[in-house]
């Protein structure tokens, strides 16, 4: 119920904002305060802030969500494979995760942006390069414990192939905890995307993005505080919405 209410709080203004053009400039409407015509005011180029926040929700949340999904899929596949086989593969995954713990995604993305230039492609690749490792370690540990369960051993004794066991037995056990980890990591990814946009390493102007909007608001805080308040409020609402999402429950088959 709480998640549904928060979803409406975010979806309604986003839907209204998407009706406007986030790139349309009007030099006769520069830095206008919130009004019925512009519910969140306008920026230094006369662009509607609500339209830009709404478009920024699609780009910022979309980038974080895409990086998260790809990272989870890669980590799930690699971790399940190493956990099933055991041996050196598991040791390598654990070592990589330990190394990645000292390399926050923000730093990796910052270095990648400085080397390859700003843009969504560079940002996504940098986030995925680090983001898949925690999922791999989780899947590795879970698979290593599950492969010795009696119901898995029974499937193997009956001649079931590895892929069938993974699809019918292991995957339903792995998806809930992987989904829970994804929910936990999503807010950090959203903040990382916004931080990189604030530093100018996101999509180039005039693309609407929450971090870039926060950076642009700094020069106008005294006369147009709504330029800071609007994207900041969007980030806060998004965080609360994610916190309200169900984590899912694992069902143990016993054994």
Automatic annotation (TrEMBL):
InterPro entries: BP-dependent_transpt_permease, MetI-like, MetI-like_sf. Pfam families: BPD_transp_1 (PF00528). It comes from the Bacteria. The keyword Nucleotide-binding does not apply. The keyword Transmembrane helix applies. Gene3D superfamilies: MetI-like. Residues 57-247 form the ABC transmembrane type-1 domain. Keywords: Cell membrane, Membrane, Transmembrane, Transmembrane helix, Transport. It is found in: Cell membrane. It is a multi-pass membrane protein. The chain crosses the membrane at residues 53-79, 91-112, 118-136, 174-203, 223-247. Belongs to the binding-protein-dependent transport system permease family. This is ABC transporter permease.
């Amino acid at each position: 119920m709480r998640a549904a209410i928060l979803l409406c709080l975010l979806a309604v203004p986003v839907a209204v904002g998407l009706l406007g053009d986030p790139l349309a400039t009007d030099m006769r409407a520069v830095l206008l305060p919130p009004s019925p015509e512009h519910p969140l005011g306008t920026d230094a180029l006369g662009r509607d802030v609500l339209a830009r926040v709404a478009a920024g929700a699609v780009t910022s949340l979309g980038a974080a969500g895409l990086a998260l999904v790809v990272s989870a899929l890669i980590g799930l596949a690699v971790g399940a494979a190493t956990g099933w086989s055991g041996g050196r593969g598991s040791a390598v995954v654990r070592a990589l995760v330990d190394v990645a713990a000292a390399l926050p995604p923000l730093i990796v993305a910052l270095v990648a942006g400085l080397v390859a230039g700003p843009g969504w492609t560079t940002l996504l690749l940098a986030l995925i390069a680090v983001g898949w490792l925690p999922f791999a370690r989780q899947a590795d540990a879970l698979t290593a414990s599950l492969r010795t369960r009696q119901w898995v051993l029974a499937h193997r004794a009956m001649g079931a192939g590895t892929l069938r066991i993974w699809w019918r037995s292991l995957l339903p056990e792995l998806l809930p905890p992987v989904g829970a980890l994804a929910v936990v990591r999503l807010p950090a990814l959203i903040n990382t995307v916004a931080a990189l946009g604030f530093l100018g390493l996101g999509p180039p102007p005039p693309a609407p993005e929450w971090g870039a909007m926060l950076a642009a608001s700094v020069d106008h805080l005294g006369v147009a505080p709504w330029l800071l308040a609007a994207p900041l409020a969007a980030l806060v609402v998004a965080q609360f919405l994610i916190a309200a999402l169900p984590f899912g429950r694992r069902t143990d088959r016993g054994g």
